[in-house]
Amino acid sequence: MALKRMFSTQKLNKQKKMSRILLMAALASLIIWGGNLACKKQTEEAVPEEAAPTKEGLVQFEGTVKTALSKYMYIPAVPGFDIVVQGSLESGDIQSLIGKEVRGEGEVAPETPSLLIANTIEVKEGEGQWRNVFTRSEDVVLDEYISLSARDEFIPLKDLSYDKKEGWEGKEKARIYGKLEKKEVGQGEEKKEMFYIVLFDNKGKETGRVIIDNFTDIARYYIDKLRLFDKFWFYINIKDTVDWKVRRKTKELFRADVLFAGLF
After folding, report:
1. Which pLDDT belongs to residue 187?
2. Looking at the domain that runs over 49-135, which CATH code has it been given?
3. Three-state DSSP class for 224?
4. CB contact set of 138 (below 8 Å; sequence gap of 6+)
5. Three-class SS of residue 32?
6. What is the β-pairing status of strands 173-185 and 232-241?
7. What CATH architecture is 148-262?
8. What are the extents of the domains in the chain?
């Protein structure tokens, strides 16, 4: 009888142990399932609704306009895109949209994945009230835009100095890293604005200046967008070298037109 009771007790203990294992397994499965559900919800919530794709090739956007110039517009709530507005706005110049909340729909061209071509734009005028100010009715012209692959054609110029003109002469397309500076020159009513890209060495000492004659619209837009940065890359067309005597005195190296600007 004692032996029978011992086997019965062992059998009961095994059953209890198995029940605990099954219960723990069920709890673990429930925790894992709940965690996966929470992660899925977080992932879905992390996708910005303002830039969520709708139909094929179309993207909806919404947010407050931070920068707008020429036909380009930047909305921080729509990361990764510069919005192109090709055509006239009913609300006036595109700069009138700065600081306003807008929404709309656009499309991305495969050859320019960082540009969102606006098809429609609405401006918020009150709680739940929106007014249409733009509907695209013409083809987009992007002749000023420089793609990432095209930027490789611009030779980076470094260690430039007033007495080493071989560093830039003979080159046309180039990019330089520096700081944009505006300066008034002349006297009285004959004063005019001059723009320079100031170049520095690794220790922060000025090594030269490039005189800027012209900016493309897209260059002006990106410069305005990057105004919080002290220095960045300028994509330029090199023109005339400054005369030796002036170059030695002022460190003005050459004249150029700015075609594009960016952090890389």
Report:
1. 66
2. 2.40.50
3. helix
4. 86, 87
5. helix
6. antiparallel
7. Beta Barrel (2.40)
8. 49-135, 148-262
